[in-house]
Specification:
By secondary structure, the protein is α/β, with parallel strands linked by helices. It has eight helices and eleven strands. The model has no long low-confidence stretch (mean pLDDT 96). The structure holds zinc ion.
């Protein structure tokens, strides 16, 4: 998705599928050239990426499972084509930033934004800053207790097998049950298992960062029975030792990524 604007009030979006890097980047550049003069571009990208402006590979997508995009100089290609400054971060970090500025993270000193879709990712904001560390967190790849008697599915993360993403992302749900989660009915055993895995991830992140709130977005979380199940299981697993974080849905929905990219571009030094 591409968008121009300065925030939610004047956002204009344009959607097209992500294909090969050359074709995808060309379509994005064409969209921006056809729009009003663009002062800066923010790119909210699937990862892993190099988001460190001082690094020689800043703006590259690095070790992604998407073969064609591996070692792609995404920010460089867009920056050279448009001749404007580029901000570059993960899609989930961008969404966290957008929720902080305009959505469910407003006014909070600490929160995590998590998306549960075809993959699982998380971005943490502490005192108004995104947590980057060496590159960016990969919260979806935490190791998760896996009871193979209850769930014989081996997990499908290409890097780790049964990490959280390999057990609980939409692609794992589909591989385990033989059809996409959208086609599984309410009350199906899939949702208790999904709540269990997501609760385990939430407990790990809570014990590590003690966030006030965790915003849970992504297509899988649109299943309404999940959030109450997750809340109950998180409270059980924490067992009174720590206060559970508020667990809430996002406020910006599918626009969070592009709004975050706009926030990143707005924050570039002028
Ligand atoms: Zn993994």
């Amino acid at each position: 998705m591409c968008a121009v604007g300065s925030g939610p009030a004047d956002l204009q979006t344009f959607e097209f599928p992500t294909t090969q890097p050359g074709e995808t980047i060309a379509r994005a550049v064409e969209f921006f050239r056809a729009s009003a003069p663009v002062a800066a571009v923010g790119i909210a990208c699937f990862g892993p990426i190099d988001p460190n402006p001082g690094s020689p590979t800043f703006g590259y997508i690095t070790s992604t499972p998407k073969q064609d995009w591996r070692n792609c100089d995404f920010a460089g290609a867009v920056g050279r084509a448009l001749g404007v400054p580029i901000a570059f971060d993960t899609d989930v970090n961008a969404a966290a930033l957008a929720e902080f500025r305009w959505g469910a993270g407003r006014g909070l000193g600490s929160f995590i934004y998590v998306t549960v879709g075809s993959g699982i990712g998380g971005g943490a904001m502490l005192d108004g800053r995104l947590l980057h560390g060496r590159s960016h967190p990969e919260m979806g790849h935490v190791r998760t207790p896996h009871d193979r008697l209850r769930d014989p599915f081996p997990g499908n993360c290409p890097y780790h097998g049964d990490c959280l993403e390999g057990l609980a992302a939409a692609l794992a749900v589909e591989a385990r049950w033989g059809r996409p989660g959208k086609l599984l009915p309410d009350g199906h055993a899939a949702w208790d298992l999904e709540a269990e895995y997501l609760a385990l991830g939430i407990v790990s992140w809570t014990c590590t960062l003690a966030p006030e709130r965790i915003i849970l977005g992504g297509g899988v979380m649109e299943r309404e029975e999940l959030l109450p199940k997750i809340k109950a299981r998180v409270a059980e697993l924490l067992n009174g030792y720590m206060e559970p974080p508020d667990l809430v849905p996002p406020e910006l929905g599918r626009r969070a990524g592009v709004l975050g990219a706009i926030a990143m571009a707005n924050d570039l030094p002028r």
